[in-house]
Amino acid sequence: MHFSSNVRLGTSPVLPLYSKLKFHPSVTNKIKRSLDIIGALIGLLIVAVIAVPIAIAMQLDNRGPIFFSQVRCGVNGKPFRIWKFRSMTVGAEKQKHLVINQAKGLIFKNECDPRITRIGRFLRKTSLDEFPQFWNVLRGEMSLVGTRPPTIDEVALYEEHHYKRLLVKPGITGEWQVKGRSNVLDFEEIVRMDLDYQRKWSNFYDLYLILCTVQVVLTRKGAC
Q: Among 58, 38, 57, 55, which Cα is nearest to 47's?
């Protein structure tokens, strides 16, 4: 497998990409894109309703920005800025080295991460923290259903087989959300599920995963 030269974000190298990487059929599928637009518009209407009460609760709990943003890698590793409702204390990234990583591989998870605020824990359990990502879906950077969106630091450490995850758009939900959420602590297991999604993909399968996600969120199965 051959790689191209490093892609840059500003003046910083991001990651090597396949020189002749082919997109997964889902990336250019018009029905999937139409479903994404419809879902994103509905999701953003919900965001408009819940943003004010979340903002008030957040300021009472831990003052700071309402939204959290981070650069992630999309299709072909193209960097984009993802948006979430802030669930951690201000400056949490600088305290990451103080928290023990309970996950295996290129992901970071801690079941009792002390950086998560009280309102943040509620937002994560209900997946409300993810709702601002509907903006990313509307912009075409993400999809309603796809693979878990990786960070630049994570992708920089990828081995060759990991790059196949980047053939599809990252999603708000996907195989990992339905089949484990926070219980999945092995990065290779996430990779396996992401590639499994690519093999199974169809618009009907996307709808199935969306319905499963609603059930998982309502029952809070696998939420931390």
A: 55
Tokens 């920005």, residue located: 65
HEC string of the chain equals CCECCCCEECCEECCCCECCCCCCHHHHCHHHHHHHHHHHHHHHHHHHHHHHHHHHHHHHHCCCCCEEEEEEECHHHCEEEEEEECCECCCHHHHHHHCCCCCECCCCCCCCCCCECHHHHHHHHHCHHHHHHHHHHHCCCCEEECECCCEHHHHCCCCHHHHHHHHCCEEEECHHHHCCHHHCCEHHHHHHHHHHHHHHCCHHHHHHHHHHHHHHHHHCCCCC
Alpha carbon distance 185, 166 (integer Å): 20
| Residue of 127, 135, 140 lying closest to 216 (CA atoms) | 127
For the entire predicted model, the pTM comes to 0.85
Residues belonging to the chain: 224
Query: What are the structural domain ranges in the chain?
Result: 24-219
pLDDT tens-place string over residues 101-124: 777 778 777 777 889 999 999 999
For 155-164, write each residue's pLDDT tens digit: 988 988 898 9
Measure Cα distances from 180 to 103, 149, 212, 214, 220 in Å.
Answer: 13, 16, 12, 14, 11
Neighbours of 10 (CB within 10 A): 7
